[in-house]
TrEMBL record:
EC number assigned by the record: 2.3.1.51
InterPro entries: AGP_acyltrans, Plipid/glycerol_acylTrfase
Domain Phospholipid/glycerol acyltransferase: start-end pairs: 97-215
Pathway per the UniProt entry: Phospholipid metabolism; CDP-diacylglycerol biosynthesis; CDP-diacylglycerol from sn-glycerol 3-phosphate: step 2/3
GO molecular function, one term: 1-acylglycerol-3-phosphate O-acyltransferase activity
Cross-referenced NCBIfam families: AGP_acyltrn
Alphabetical keyword list: Acyltransferase, Lipid biosynthesis, Lipid metabolism, Membrane, Phospholipid biosynthesis, Phospholipid metabolism, Transferase, Transmembrane, Transmembrane helix
Protein name in the entry: 1-acyl-sn-glycerol-3-phosphate acyltransferase
Pfam family, one: Acyltransferase
Catalytic activity: a 1-acyl-sn-glycero-3-phosphate + an acyl-CoA = a 1,2-diacyl-sn-glycero-3-phosphate + CoA
Gene Ontology CC, one term: endoplasmic reticulum
Length: 284
């Protein structure tokens, strides 16, 4: 049953992708840029509408997330994006952990869909407002996504700390974006918020830093949305054993510094490998 559902949904994505390629523009333009994002959001919503009833058989189960990712990852073919995962063995190890990564665009979620199978038992944290975006938000809720109220930091921290049982007992990884918002400046990372680190320390689980290379191929102001290559680098886990609330600041600095170093290295790598006339950008 599941195989047929996945096959049919995947065929829908590929068919729609073919049609969209025919109507897209080859030259950078505002219309082309916004059309591509519209198609991305439309497909995510369409497929969420199709599959959310299936999640009712096992509501709030992270296995629903993996099923959704297996279907939604095919949207990548529409944009000719290559997601290269490095350090997959770090992400695939069965254990409870807090995964933190940089946040550049809603395309991060598409990248996440493409590596979800490697992480296996994985869920994510999102702002509460997303839950009310039907059908995607509701489907994500049934798939085990954790929603927090960013306008109430104390309450948000309590909600994150309550996930300790899920991580430890069920050996589930929880993915967060500690920058808290999309970073449009591809030259550096934004300051990190502390919620993810409080959660990891409270549960005494490791933090797995993950770095996405810069999205040099998209620029809103210039209407650029080209094909691209994104490296997703998993760093060595950082233990929180024995750490307490007083160690949070140092932990945040340690993780951010490690990710910043790798981010700069990946930036140099992807930009150096581009053709000399490629119109890459440092601002989204």
């Amino acid at each position: 049953m599941w195989e047929k559902i996945i096959f049919c949904a995947s065929m829908c994505v590929l068919t729609f992708s073919f049609i969209s390629k025919k109507i897209s523009y080859s030259e950078p333009s505002k219309l082309s840029f916004h059309l591509k994002f519209f198609v991305y959001y439309f497909l995510c919503s369409l497929l969420a509408f199709v599959i959310w009833p299936l999640f009712l058989f096992r509501p709030r189960n992270v296995k629903n997330s993996r099923l959704a990712a297996t279907i939604l990852k095919h949207i990548t073919k529409l944009y000719d994006l290559k997601w290269e995962l490095r350090g997959a063995d770090i992400l695939s190890e069965e254990r409870g952990a807090v995964v933190v990564s940089n946040h550049q665009s809603s395309l991060d979620i598409l990248g996440l869909f493409n590596i979800w199978e490697v992480a296996d038992k994985l869920t994510a944290v999102a702002k509460r407002e997303v839950m009310y975006v039907f059908p995607f938000g509701f489907a994500a809720y049934l798939a085990g996504v954790i929603y927090i109220d960013r306008n109430d930091p104390k309450r948000a921290r309590e909600q994150l700390n309550m996930t300790s049982d899920v991580m430890v007992k069920e050996k589930t990884k929880i993915w967060l974006f500690p920058e808290g918002t999309r970073n449009k400046d591809y030259r550096s990372l934004l300051p990190f918020k502390k919620g993810a680190f409080h959660m990891a320390v409270a549960a005494q689980v490791p933090i797995i830093p993950v770095v996405f290379s810069p999205y040099y191929f998209i620029n809103n102001k210039q209407g650029i949305f080209n094909k691209g290559h994104v490296i997703i680098q998993c760093l060595e886990p950082i233990s929180t054993k024995g750490l307490g609330p007083e160690d949070i600041d140092g932990l945040v600095t340690r993780v951010r510094d490690a990710m910043s170093t790798v981010y700069k290295e990946l930036t140099k790598e992807v930009i150096t490998n581009l053709p000399s006339d490629y119109p890459h950008t440092t601002v989204g």
